[in-house]
Amino acid sequence: MNNSSKFVLGTALLLLATGSLAQAQSSDDESLRMTALEALITAPPDRALPIVDKVLAGNHSAELKERALFILSQMETPESQARLLAYANDSDGELQVEAIRMIGIGGDKDAMASLGEIYRNGDADVREAVLEAYLIANDATAVFEIAANTEDEDEFSEAVQMLGAMGAHDELRELRGRAGLSESLIEAYAISGDAESLRELAMDSSNPEMQERAIESLGIVGGDDVNKTLMEIYASAANEDIKEAAVEGLFIAGHDEGVLELYRNADDPAEKRELLEYLVLMDSEVVWDLIDSAFEESE
Amino acid sequence: MRAAKIIAITMLGLALLWSAPAISAEGLGDSDGWYKWEVTGEFTCGPCSGVTTFYVRKEDGKPTRIRASNSNCGKPVTESATDLGTLSRDESVAIFLDIVKNSSFDMDVREDALIWLAQSNSDIAFEYFDQLLFDT
Fold first, then answer.
1. Domains of chain A by range and CATH?
2. Mind telling me how many Å the CA of B110 is from chain A's nearest CA?
């Protein structure tokens, strides 16, 4: 290697080294900026607010602005809450959506009360963010109002799913009385773990389609009591559809011992075959017991 | 060979350029171990009020930890510490600024210093926040 080649190689290595150092420095600076912003939570609000405002108004990264909104949500002063609300009302895109979520995190009563109007005037993203804010703040009443007052099926479904995630049994039960039964309501009962409502619906044959959905959904709730109920439903099923819904529920619940019991009690070869298929689908160890028994019988 | 020398000299120069000075001797001494000082009623530490004692630990000549205690919150450091007596808020802010600005110090201790600066209610500290966040 001649001298000029060595020089070029050396310079390249030096540039690589300086590049890495500059990158590390830049990463430290960004980390310090983030910490500085977060540290403002502990600062006197009159000191922190102008800085947070400036971050939100400036050309900063989305992450830094998101933290700034979080600081606002934690400051608990009327001025900070008013700012947060202004961003939730008047900004757009991700900043608006984050401001709405931060209202949920802060949980300020007045700011939370303003979310209803933002929801009514907002697009799909805004509405989703408001529902999330209610979820974060665990405001089941507000979500119930949305579900109870809408005539839009999708909006009802989203609100009801949120109530399910919140475990809002009372609100979901009241919706059944008001809005009638629907598939999304049954799903929400399952998500919320309301076996009692599902059991009641599983025994109600007035709407066979909903009855089958309720039986299947019991499997999502799971547990010994539910398994017992599903076994009883299967045993006393008035038709094949109910039987299938019950075994589907057992499949979802992962109760392979129950399916095995049904298999052993079944006389009809077609029924046996179907139950065996479920056991295979469940990847159940009991299938091997059945194979062993079959071999023993043949010997 | 000449090229190698040029590179070596350049690297040495850059290394010297990047090596940051040690923490301000105005605030802390040179030896390792804990240093402590008191500040009266100038730092807003949530429920804390009254006299705050700050502790800074130095290892290998660099600050590595910051702790604070008050009659209402925080536990005092029980190990022996060099007592710097009572310092003013601005003197304390100067120490914390030295720590934050020195890129050769560990990020954890620099970030701890930032948190105390935020609670200093000092114009100098908040000017630094402004500079850090908005000067590119």
1. 195-299 (1.25.10)
2. 8
- B129, B118 contact by CB (below 8 A): yes
Q: How confident is the model at residue A167 (pLDDT cuts 50, 70, 90)?
A: very high
ipTM of the complex: 0.74
More confident residue, A299 or A31: A31
Indicate yes or no: CB of A43 within 8 angstroms of CB of B118: yes
* Sign, CA torsion B72/B73/B76/B82: negative
> Residue B14 carries which side chain, given as an amino acid letter?
L
For residue B133, the chain A residues in CB contact (below 8 A) are 33, 36-37, 51, 54-55
Pick left, alpha or beta for residue A12 (phi over 0 → left; psi -120 to 50 → alpha; otherwise beta).
Answer: alpha
* DSSP 3-state of B43: coil
Confidence of residue B49 (pLDDT cuts 50, 70, 90): low
Integer-rounded Cα Rg, in Å, for chain A is: 29
- A104: Cβ–Cβ under 8 A, 6 or more apart, which residues? A112, A115, A132, A133, A134, A135, A136, A137
Angle at A54 between CA A40 and CA B126, to 5 degrees: 45
**Interface residues on B facing A, Cβ-Cβ cutoff 8 A:** 1-4, 6-7, 10-11, 14, 18, 44-46, 100, 103, 107, 110-111, 114-115, 117-119, 121, 126, 129-130, 132-134
Put simply, the answer to whether B11 touches A14 (Cβ < 8 Å) is yes
DSSP conformational letter for A225? H
Mean pLDDT estimate for chain A: 89
H or E element that contains B90: helix B89-101
Placement of tokens 């919706």 in the chain: A175
Contacts of B73 (CB under 8 A, 6+ apart): B45, B46, B47, B48
Contact A39, B112 (CB under 8 A): no
What stretch of H or E contains A149? helix A140-149
List CB contacts (< 8 A) between A14 and chain B: 7, 10-11, 14
B52 bridge partner residues: B39, B70
**Both structure tokens of A204:** 């109600």
CA atoms of B69 and A104, how far apart (whole Å)? 34
What is the tally of structural domains in chain B? 1
Owner of token pair 């044959």? A205
Tokens of B68: 């604070």
Domain extent, residue B122, equals 2-134
What phi and psi values does residue B7 have, to the nearest 5 degrees? Answer: -65, -45
